[in-house]
Amino acid sequence: MIQLALSGAAQPGSSHSDNPQRGAKTYLRTASSDLDTDAEGDDFELLDQSELNQLDPAGSRGESWKEEALHTYLDCLPQRGAGVPPTPPPHPPPVLLSLCPRYRYYQNVCTQSYSYVWWDWERWEREIDWMALSGINLALAFLGQELVWQRVYLSLGLNQSEIDAYFTGPAFLAWNRLGNLHGWAGPLPRSWHLKQLYLQYRVVERMRSLGMLTVLPAFAGHVPPGVLRVFPRVNATRLGGWSHFDCTYSCSYLLDPEDPMFQVIGTLFLKELIKEFGTDHIYSADTFNEMSPLSSDPAYLSRVSNAVFRSMTGADPEALWLMQGWLFQHQPDFWQPAQVRALLHGVPLGRMIVLDLFAESKPVYPWTESFYGQPFIWCMLHNFGGNHGLFGTVESLNRGPFEARRFPNSTMVGTGLAPEGIEQNDVVYELMNELGWRHEPLDLPAWVSRYAQRRYGAANAAASSAWLLLLRSPYNCTGVCVNHNRSPLVRRPSLHMDTQLWYNASDVYEAWRLLLSAGAALGSSLTYRYDLVDVTRQAVQQLVADYYLSIRGAFQSRALPELLTAGGVLVYDLLPELDSLLSSHRLFLLGRWLESARAAATSDREAELYEMNARNQLTLWGPSGNILDYANKQLGGLVLDYYGVRWSLFVSLLVESLNSGSPFHQEHFNQAVFQVERGFIYNKKRYPTAPVGDTLEISRKLFLKYYPGAMKRSRAGPA
Questions:
Q1: Record's PANTHER family (predicted)?
Q2: Are 78 and 136 in the same domain?
Q3: For residue 486, what pLDDT band results from cuts at 50, 70 and 90?
C-alpha cells in the first residue's frame, strides 16, 4: 500500500515538465511494496493532512466518496505542459483507492534515448515525483549500466579500445543495449560513465523511497567482437543488419545459448549490477528486438530464453524477467504460435512478465491465449520517436484494458505507459493513468470536459468544446493505428507523399478557433499556452499538406504560376510563421534540446560529440539517413533551418524542371538534399533556449491569415 496525503493547493507554476519547483504538496509513504505477481491490485490511501502519520486502513466508505476523493486527488496533480494545477476542494474523509490490477508500468527501452538521454538530476526528480503521484509502481532504471559492462569486459580480457568501439554515442544507447547497433556516434567519454552512474544512484534511491519497483537491465546474449578475440572458441553467430544499417554499425554477435560463456557473462554482469545498485528482483532483457532469430526451431528459441533466465537466477535466485513483447507483433510472420510458446515457456510460468507493448492497436494477448500462461501488462505505446502531432486512440484505451481483464484465463497483471518519447499529447497519458484506478470504462466526453477544467484551473465553455472536438477526431483513431507522423512537413519532400488523415481536418481548425477565443480568460495559464501552440502547430501541419497538394498538382499540370504561388506561400510565409510560433514556447525549442546535450559534457570536445548525437537523432538517424526523420520533431529553429530548407530546395528544383522542360528526378534531389541534411548536423549555429514572442499574438495572426481558406478546403471531409 502506498499512502498519499494532500495538503492544500498546488503551488503556482508547479508544472511537472516545465518548472523546477516541485509539484503539488503531496506526501507519500510506503506501507507495503511486496513483490507479488498473484496480487490483483495495489492500494493507495488518500489521507487528510491531520491524519498523515496514521497507518491504519481507512476502510470502505462507499463509491461516491471514492469518486470524489479520486477527483480531488487528480485535481491536485501537476500538469505536464507547464500548467498551474487548481486549488482542490476540501478533502473528504480518508478513503482507500485500489489500482486495477497490481502493476502500473512506465517507460520503454527507447525512451532512454529519445527523451531522457540528456537529463540532469533536477529533471529526473520531477519525473519520478510525477510517476509516484500518477500511481506508477514499476519502472526501468537503466542509467549507468555501460560502466558496469565496461568493468565486466575488462575483467574478461577485452581492451579499452575494443570497448570504446562497441558502445554507441549517448543518443543511440537504447539500440546498443538491444543489440541493434554498435559504435555509431561514439565513443562514450569516461565522464559520461561516471555521471550516469551517480545519476542512477539517485534515481534508484528516489524511486524506491516512493514505493516503486525498479527494473534493472540484464544480459540478453549480445557481445562485442572483442569477446571472440579473447575466447576464440566461443560459439557466437552474427545476426543480420538492423533497420537499414549495414554491418559497419550493426550485425551484432549473439552467443549460443548452450555456450558456457553465456552464463559466465550474464551472471557476472548482474552480480556486479546488484552489488552497485541493489535489486528489486525484476530484470529487463530483449534478445530479438526487430531482429530475426537464427532459427525458427522452437527448441532453439526455448533454449535462448532459458539461457537468459538462468543467467539472471545465477545472480539472483528470485529473479523475475520483464520482457517487451514488441517482437511478436513486429514480425508476426516469424513469431507463429509455436515460436511464441517456445520462447515464453523457456522460462517457468510466473517468472516472466511480458509487456504487451502496443496493446491499444495491436494486442498480442488475444492470439497467444494470454501469452500462454505468462503474466502480461497491457501497455499503451502511443508514440514513436518522440514525434509531435495530435494523436490518440481513446476509444481503444477506454475499452482495451477491461477487455483484457475479462479475457478467458487472463494473465493480465497490470497496465502500462510505454511511449518511445514523452512530452507530447498529455491528454492520452492522463487518460491512461486514470484508467488504472478504474474498474470500468469512463464517460469520455464528461472526462475530457473535466480534464480541460483541471488542466487550465478554471471551467471554460470554449476550451471544453475544443477538447470535445479533439477527442472525437485526432485523438480517436480507430482500428490499427500506427502514427509515426508522416506529415509532408517533416518528411523529405517527394511527389509521392501520402496526405490522408484518420480524422476530419476541420475539427482541428474549429478547436483552434475555440481555444483562441478562450485566450482572454485563460491566457495566464501556462498549460493553455502550451496547448494553443500544439493545436496551432497541428493546424499548420495540415495546411502544409494542403499546400503540398497544390504544389504537386501545379507541377503535374505544368502550371508554373500556381506552382510559384503555392511554393512561395509555403516556403516564405507558412513555415517561417510556424517556426515563430514554436519559438514562443520553451518546450518547442530546438535550442533547449541541443543545449541540454552540451550541458551534459565536461569539455568542448564532448560538447561537440553530444550535439552531433542530438542533431543526428532528430534528422538523419544514422550516417546516411538510415532511419531518416523517424524521430522528427516540430521545434523552433528546426522547422526553419532544416525542414524549411529542404522544402525550398524541392520547390526550386520543381520550378527549374518546368522552366527547362526537363524531368524532375527524385534521386538527384535526394542526393542534393542529403548535403543539406548532413550540413545541418555539423553546423555550429546556436539556437535560443528561451522563448521569443507572444504565443497568443502569433497564433491569432496565423488564424486570421489562414483559417478561412482552411475551413473552406476541409468542409468536404478528411484531407
A1: ALPHA-N-ACETYLGLUCOSAMINIDASE
A2: no
A3: confident
Q: Taking phi first (over 0 means left), then psi (-120 to 50 degrees means alpha), and beta for anything else, what does residue 520 get?
A: alpha
Sheet of 236-238, strand order: 222-223, 253-255, 236-238
Instruction: Verify that 92 and 126 share a domain, yes or no.
Output: no
Percent of the chain past pLDDT 90, that is, above it, reads: 83
Instruction: State which residues form the domain around 133.
Output: 103-438
- Cis peptide preceding 445, ω within 30 of 0: no
612 plus 667 within the same structural domain: yes
Q: Tens digits of per-residue pLDDT, 514-567?
A: 999 999 999 999 999 999 999 999 999 999 999 999 999 999 999 999 999 999
Q: Output the pLDDT for position 710.
A: 87
Does residue 177 sit in the same domain as residue 293? yes
Strands 352-356 and 320-324: parallel
Amino acid (1-letter code) at residue 707: Y
The β-bridge partners of 27 are 5
Contact 378, 436 (CB under 8 A): no
Last residue of a domain, one of 99, 116, 149: 99
Confidence at 711, pLDDT banded by 50, 70, 90 = confident
Which pLDDT score, from 0 to 100, does residue 175 have?
99
C-alpha cell recorded at residue 493: 519532400
Which stretches does DSSP call E strand in 159-240?
213-217, 222-223, 236-238
Q: Which residues pair with 376 in a beta bridge?
A: 354, 412
Asked whether the beta carbons of 139 and 107 are under 8 A apart, the reply is yes
CATH number of domain containing 700: 1.20.120.670
Q: What is the pLDDT of residue 603?
A: 98
Q: Are 13 and 526 in contact (CB under 8 A)?
A: yes
Question: Do 643 and 669 fall into the same domain?
Answer: yes
Report residue 339 as a C-alpha cell: 515460436
Which is nearest to 497 in space by CA: 547, 537, 536?
A: 547
Helix (H, G, I), strand (E, B) or coil at 392: coil
Residue where a domain terminates, one of 99, 134, 150: 99
Residues 92 and 122 in one domain: no
Contacts of 584 (CB under 8 A, 6+ apart): 533, 636, 691, 692, 693, 694, 695, 698
Query: Taking Cα atoms as reference points, which of 296, 276, 295, 160 lies closest to residue 217?
Result: 276
Q: Which three cell numbers stand for residue 11?
A: 503551488
Same domain, 118 and 20: no
Burial of 79 (0-12, 13-18, 19+ CB in 10 A): buried
Find the CATH number of the domain harbouring 379: 3.20.20.80
Tell me the average pLDDT across 96-108.
Answer: 79
Question: Residue 20 has what pLDDT?
Answer: 33
pTM: 0.91
How many domains does the chain contain in total?
A: 3
Q: Please tell me the distance from the alpha carbon of residue 562 to that of residue 429, in angstroms, as a whole number.
A: 43
